[in-house]
Amino acid sequence: MRAIDSRNTVPAVAADDRRRWFRGQAFWLVAPALLLLVICLGLPLAIVTLRSFSEPQWGWQNYAWFFGTPVNLTVLQRTFAISAWVTLVCLIAGYPYAYVMTAVGPKMRLVLILCVLVPFWVSGVVRTLAWVILLQDSGVINSVIRAVGLGPVKLIRTQTGVVIGMAQVLLPFMILPLYSVMKTIDLRLMQAARSLGASPARAFAQVYLPLSLPGVYAGAIIVFILALGFYITPALLGGPRSTMLSTLIQNQVLSLLNWGRGGAMGVVLLIATFVLLALAAPLSRQPHKTGSRR
Amino acid sequence: MKTKIGHVAALGLLMITTAALAQSKPVAGEVAEGSLKGKTLTFVSYGGIYQDGQIAALKEFVDKSGVTLLSDGPTEISKLQAQVESGNVTWDVVDTGDFPPYVYCGKLFQKLDFSKIDTSNIPEGQISECSVPAMNYGVVLMYNTEKYKDNPPKSWKDFFDIEKFPGSRALEGSGDLSGGMIEQALLAAGGSVENMTVADIDKAIEKVRSLGPDTIFWKTGADSQQLAESGEADMIAMWTGRAMTAVKNGAKYTPAWQDWLVVMDQMTIPMGVKDPDAAHALINAYVGKSAQETLAKTTSYTPIHKDAKPEVDEITAAFMTNTPDKLKLGYQQNIKFWVENFEVANEKWNALMAGN
Asked: What is the interface pTM, i.e. ipTM, of the complex?
């Protein structure tokens, strides 16, 4: 308990002063990042949005087309479903991994961090092509499955294959936020819970898990949003039934030069993402409340 | 003294006429010594071995003309559009796929001045107002010889017949429209390619869909080669270059050349380039005999100069598409129809690609 409280023991007056100073200066600290965002993200986004309304003529035509074409809706829904699966797989694989990172010594921790980061430094295309070789019908994974006698399993060009490939690419984005939160959790809290008679499962569910939730939300949101925009991995590991929205956008813009429709698709994806995040926001506030109540 | 002046005058006259002749009648592959000194051209293509080979083919042109040749890529029509619209065109000569020079002729690509390019040795029917071919290749039906031992498929009709020829199929799904493939599917569905209509596109795509849910749509050339080398699909519609490489690597596949689909890349000059004359000179050099031989030798694509005789090995030669017997079997898509119906055809094809 003391470990947590000690973070808030700065005298109130000093904190107030600091806040006042900060309010004046903070803008300049974020200015470079803000400028970059406006130029590299805000401006292009504004142009794309504008073109979605202005090409070929002014109006809602591109949006009418988007929602009037069944394939777009199927793919939009699929894009969210695949991203949700990827987030879940990353969470299941990443949570225990991040926990182990907090529990081992510094040397072992370095090894574990490297294991997460090294694949991260390899080009996405190379990694995806490696997955092609692993997942294909005559590939390594299927050879093992066949040797065990379970028959060949269709992995490549299926949604399963796409989810596996994407989850591996995105795993670091789940593990790192989880780890950064978990390392601040005082493990003695678990001992305390146990000494008060909680079973290990209960101690985990009622003490550790709630404290780690901010990391879960941070990781899940980053992974989910990054997954929505994935292009190379679903294109190479998937088949027609795992095409994601980015591929359709690419087709509109690069093959058909239809910036209006491509823009409309991008805007729809963006708004759908915002809506989803807004719905998820109340969930992420929960652990804070329990935290302050304690 | 008099004779000497006459001499000089005659020599001067001769030089002027030669220059004038060179001006009026270009010869493929030739460029005047030092004529582009101090100038810079940016050549854009699809990268990899292909673009390396093209640069190698242009080496003579660079050495002789004194031009500085820059290489950029990959070709993306949307990027080109952005350059043309903003009036800042930095791509001087662009290698594109089959359709763009037809679809965007006069909009993104300028009409070529054929008094500056010697096209006399290019195979017939391959030149358009805005393009000359960059090379030829084909999409050919490759089948697994171990699977179809005594009863091999002979044509696209067999490719689309899963009852007589059971097994998995793979065809191009890179996103670019293959008009030739749709036409073959239409023929296999019992349709006719004379006077095609938009309804025929649906009929053809239905035929492709009838191949079943296990049909593979490969995304890249490397992808298709991998399919052949690992034996993942029993019949594969493949680019000839990739088919050749797969066979060289030991894939047990053989081509059925009947109605192989003729495909070409195109050489184009964007609207608004700073020096159109220099760009034309590059293309004129590129279509020359020795340049085309170098290109074929380095990339194993088929040269577009009738007399080009590249020194290549046996397997490469077997996949060159410019021999008389193969030219006879080749199938030319109805470019006019596909250009006119570019958008609707793309939409229908992309819906198939997106699993609908």
From this structure: 0.78
